[in-house]
Design goal:
Number of strands of chain B: 11
Distance between the termini of chain B: 38 Å
Structural class of chain A: mainly beta
Number of helices of chain A: 0
Order of helices and strands of chain A: EEEEEEEEEEE
Largest sheet of chain B: 7 strands, mixed
Radius of gyration of chain B: 13 Å
Shape of chain A: globular
Oligomer: heterodimer
Shape of chain B: globular
Distance between the termini of chain A: 41 Å
Order of helices and strands of chain B: EEEEEEEEEEE
Largest interface: A-B, 24 and 26 residues
Strand content of chain A: over 45%
Helix content of chain A: under 10%
Amino acid sequence: GEDVEQSLFLSVREGDSSVINCTYTDSSSTYLYWYKQEPGAGLQLLTYIFSNMDMKQDQRLTVLLNKKDKHLSLRIADTQTGDSAIYFCAEYNDYKLSFGAGTTVTVRA
Amino acid sequence: ETGVTQSPTHLIKTRGQQVTLRCSSQSGHNTVSWYQQALGQGPQFIFQYYREEENGRGNFPPRFSGLQFPNYSSELNVNALELDDSALYLCASSLGSGYPNEQFFGPGTRLTVL
């Protein structure tokens, strides 16, 4: 089966880096995803990584994947107030995305 | 390029009633997936439609049903509403059901069951 776990809260100072962590259990996951949800909105796809990669960088976002430990992280460089949101990691198998409970990121001045 | 749209935005129903939620997929996308997001939780997969056929289903009872139309828009129907059905219902569209399966979400329909 699949189970995705995330820490629930992260508080970060504006301009610092944020690191959001996630663990998953389904070793057959081929792709892993990061989504962002702002209050009252749907989910926005931020980035995804193929399971045979260790790292993917996309502007301020860096995804690190440790397949052996089934650990995924998202680093946001130079965190801004607009980055305050809930971040979900997800894996895709059997036609469905399986999400974690989400990490609420609060950016303080 | 038009994004994913959903209607209505909000809906209030009473227990036992039936509801229909609608989704228009992003242009060029032929696959629609529906998710239920309870307050404070991550979205849970309900089912996926690809070219008008149900492609996969999550752990939801048969009173949750759906349709996909030839223009790839979709409906989610829920019969015999229960209080626990109160949630944000999200649809997502994608091109096919293979990998990397980038799913693009609509803004959701907030359903409240009293």
